[in-house]
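Lab notebook, bench 4. Still working through the backlog of constructs that have no structural model yet. Next entry is a single chain of 296 residues. Request: give me the structure tokens for it.
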Amino acid sequence: MAIPDNQLKVWAQPGTVQGAKNTHAAIRNALAGHQWPDDVHYVTYLQGSYRNNTHLRRQSDVDVVVELTSLPVRDGSGLPGSQRELLARDFPEPGYGWRRFRRDVRSALAGAFGDSRVREGKKTWKLAMESPEIPVDVVVAVRYLTYTEYSGQRKYRRTEGLGLYLPAEGRWAINYPHRHRRNGVEKEKATNWWFRRTIRMFKNARAKLVDDGRLGPDTARSYHIECLLYNVPNRLLAGSYQSAYSSALYWLRDNDLARFPSQDKQVLVFDRGPDSWNERDARTLINALVRQYEDW
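Model written out:
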């Protein structure tokens, strides 16, 4: 017996976003009260499920990005020597960088919410707010520009992303949330608003598998599910909850995942990098979802 249409319809509905919006506003106000150097400018925004409108009715963690925009990292490591030297001459490394920005963000949060409520995570500042009681990750990042050609300030090729430095690993983790969101919006329109509903159905099905002990909690993150479904042909995400869900599920089961691009179209879902997913876990997820669907 397949999962009934009324269950899929419930799973497809978004949760409330007000708590996340209130959290974002509180963090934005905390940062606004800090004394920043004159040349430091930043933007804040929700990231992940809330930003992409794929959040569920069950409470989700809130990710708030604080992105340093005025003093970007300019990565010319892939340029020929002469171009790399020209880039370095044109844009000397600023004295104020990501490390100091991260410390200043923590200082602003501690001043507003109390020092004991801000603790260090592997990649973020973990913020424990009194109201609403939602786990909050404050992602301190910097505008990251990767150059593939540089012949001067008016002639260059580059890709803009979001850089997060990992001190323990001595490297930058680069992602592309703005491209991810923009491409998701385009696919949502192209599927007549079925893309996000299908993502929520898959995420809720995954959550039930985890709750039932049939799937490990770390097998697939929400981001991974969004990237998988981004590759499903638009024509399959249509018709009804039953049709969209089953068509996407069996298409994923029957197709080669190896060359799937991420939703941002900058890297592959399985690019073998230190931050990438692996195809084995993707197959584990898909097979578990098929069994759940057919044995309901």
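Notes after review: The chain has a mean pLDDT of 94. Residues 195-211 form the longest helix (17 residues). Flag for follow-up if needed.
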